[in-house]
Amino acid sequence: MKLTRQAIKDVILIEPAVHGDERGYFFESFRKDKLEDTLGHEVSFTQDNESLSSRGVLRGLHYQLPPYAQSKLVRVISGEVIDVAVDIRLGSPTFGQHVKARLSGENKHQLFVPRGFAHGFIVLSEQAIFAYKVDNGYAPEHDCGIHFNDAALGIDWQLDNAEISTSGKDAEQPMLLTRQQTAPDTL
Amino acid sequence: MKLTRQAIKDVILIEPAVHGDERGYFFESFRKDKLEDTLGHEVSFTQDNESLSSRGVLRGLHYQLPPYAQSKLVRVISGEVIDVAVDIRLGSPTFGQHVKARLSGENKHQLFVPRGFAHGFIVLSEQAIFAYKVDNGYAPEHDCGIHFNDAALGIDWQLDNAEISTSGKDAEQPMLLTRQQTAPDTL
Ligand SMILES: Cc1cn([C@H]2C[C@H](O)[C@@H](COP(=O)(O)OP(=O)(O)O[C@H]3O[C@@H](C)[C@H](O)[C@@H](O)[C@H]3O)O2)c(=O)[nH]c1=O
Ligand SMILES: Cc1cn([C@H]2C[C@H](O)[C@@H](COP(=O)(O)OP(=O)(O)O[C@H]3O[C@@H](C)[C@H](O)[C@@H](O)[C@H]3O)O2)c(=O)[nH]c1=O
């Protein structure tokens, strides 16, 4: 298992080591000790989620405000997605910037998305099974979003707008700067 | 999410609640709080594993002796398996008995297998992706097994012997009573 800090250094890319044999394969998909070694602090995941989505589905960009903020460890079990983590930590030198990773059942890469980031992904394959851990519970009343096409973020989602489908909620998410002006000290 | 104690009451069957919509589905595949409520004690999972196996592959029966014993929370992401947990707790009124569950990507059922149990599964579908959590690290030198066909266990694996394939190691595992006579106070 290889863990590598990304351009925004609190985001970590994880590449598990896969053991193949005549039965199939085996790999360790999560090692709390190794993640904490790289992070330099503890992380206690308390919930796992799984979603299935068809090609063009974009889920995001989502985050929960403190005290409900969540770190996420995200991966793809089958299919392929572009995964995006946007730094929305007020005062961060990389505020508004993002890290992007291609996660697939093939490469088995994972992304650690810290608290203070908005997260989303788009499905490039016919279908994708997406799985992730969070270290804080779901708080529907504090479930916030940013519009995926916010020009200030400049995210290349790699599919044409006409191919992209979102939930009703995600089609109406505010822009990051709107959000920041509304709640400047809570991000 | 529904959690139900099984005939051997420390084994728990978990049935998540799946939310479907036009994008696909979403479900919470693990809730530490709900599992601990049902168990009546804490459980701290520190590692996740994933394996892929083809039809007829049988992995098991495996366990690690204390202080390396592992609780496991097991599930199937795609495909179908028969999952088996054998009570090997010395002095247990159900010693040698087992709980069996059909786990599939379809039903999304999970089984909580406590410490003191040997665990194994057989793949019924063309392929199956199996995923599980453990609450204690892998200790290869303390990785123990029982032969899946031990007559004293009487497990119906639902496929003919000719269709079953195992690792070399699992083909040579000892019978439970042999293991018990060898190390009577360590189980
Ligand atoms: C996130 C979540 C949703 N749900 C329910 C609410 C809805 O009925 C259904 C779908 O919820 P939605 O918010 O539309 O799912 P979604 O897949 O769009 O939301 C997810 O998107 C990812 C990009 C983020 O990283 C996640 O943190 C989460 O926000 O699942 C839970 O029960 N528990 C949860 O933890
Ligand atoms: C179990 C394990 C194996 N490995 C490596 C060792 C081998 O190179 C490869 C395959 O290991 P095996 O023991 O043959 O895999 P397996 O799939 O036969 O073993 C598993 O069977 C399940 C029924 C049990 O519940 C598990 O606890 C485990 O014993 O993976 C790890 O790196 N970490 C681990 O935690």
Automatic annotation (TrEMBL), chains A, B:
Pfam families named among the record's database cross-references: dTDP_sugar_isom
UniProt source species: Gilvimarinus japonicus
SUPFAM superfamilies named in the record: RmlC-like cupins (SSF51182)
Top enzyme category: isomerase
Protein's recorded name: dTDP-4-dehydrorhamnose 3,5-epimerase
Record keywords, A-Z: Isomerase
PANTHER family associated with the record: DTDP-6-DEOXY-D-GLUCOSE-3,5 EPIMERASE, THYMIDINE DIPHOSPHO-4-KETO-RHAMNOSE 3,5-EPIMERASE
MF terms (GO), sorted A to Z: dTDP-4-dehydrorhamnose 3,5-epimerase activity
Gene: rfbC
Keyword Isomerase: yes
Listed pathway(s): Carbohydrate biosynthesis; dTDP-L-rhamnose biosynthesis
EC number(s) stated in the UniProt entry for this protein: 5.1.3.13
Its job: Catalyzes the epimerization of the C3' and C5'positions of dTDP-6-deoxy-D-xylo-4-hexulose, forming dTDP-6-deoxy-L-lyxo-4-hexulose.
Coiled coil is among the record's keywords: no
Gene3D superfamilies: Jelly Rolls (2.60.120.10)
Subunit (UniProt): Homodimer.
Catalytic activity: dTDP-4-dehydro-6-deoxy-alpha-D-glucose = dTDP-4-dehydro-beta-L-rhamnose
The family this protein is said to belong to: Belongs to the dTDP-4-dehydrorhamnose 3,5-epimerase family.
